[in-house]
Amino acid sequence: MSERELLLERLLGHALRAMARTNADPEYLAAFVDEYRPIFARELGIHTATSSHSDLKAVVKEALGEVLSVRQVRRRVAVQIGTLRTTVSIDPARLARLEQRLGASAAREQLQAFAAAVPNTLDRGQRSGWFDRQIDAFLTLSAQDSESHQARH
Q: Would you say residue 42 has pLDDT above 80?
């Protein structure tokens, strides 16, 4: 493998690691490599047809393996975004805090309320991270509201 092809592999690997850390779905990661490998190769001046198909599974497997080894397992939660019934992955500790604050049923309702507010511009691979941020903001605001309510009494 040439030095430029190794650079291509490293760049794709770094991009995949960054995307996997945002909890992008494996299918999304594979589609990213399929779409952007030829673009990256062209920008690096690599013109061989074989480089565009070099060991996609190994690149995705390595990137996912690294990320999954350091992050805890996430919990898949079914939601409806627009007319699409889908799942998002939520950090179990974060979900437990939400359920503790609201109760299990109200927590599910809150997750669905978040799903109703998902921006149209959000890619599929970014949804879980967006839900994590919404839960964090909700918990922070509800804790502040609770503290200010207690301070008034």
A: yes
Angle in degrees, CA 145, 134, 29, rounded to 5: 165
CB-based contacts of 88, cutoff 8 Å, min separation 6: 76, 77, 79, 115, 127, 128, 131
Q: Is pLDDT at 64 greater than 70 in this prediction? A: no
Angle (CA) 62-76-120 rounded to 5° is 90
Q: Burial level of 98, CB count in 10 A (0-12/13-18/19+)?
A: buried
As given in the structure block, the two tokens for residue 135 are 């839960």
Dihedral (CA of 127, 108, 87, 79) sign: negative
Q: Which value, to the nearest 10 degrees, does the dihedral of the CA atoms of residues 138, 143, 144, 149 take?
A: 120
The torsion of the CA quartet 40, 43, 44, 50, rounded to 10 degrees, works out to: 50
pTM exceeds cut of 0.70: no
Give yes or no for residue 131 having a pLDDT over 90. yes
3-state SS assignment for residue 15? helix
The overall average pLDDT reported for the chain is 80
Distance of alpha carbon 7 from alpha carbon 21, whole angstroms: 21
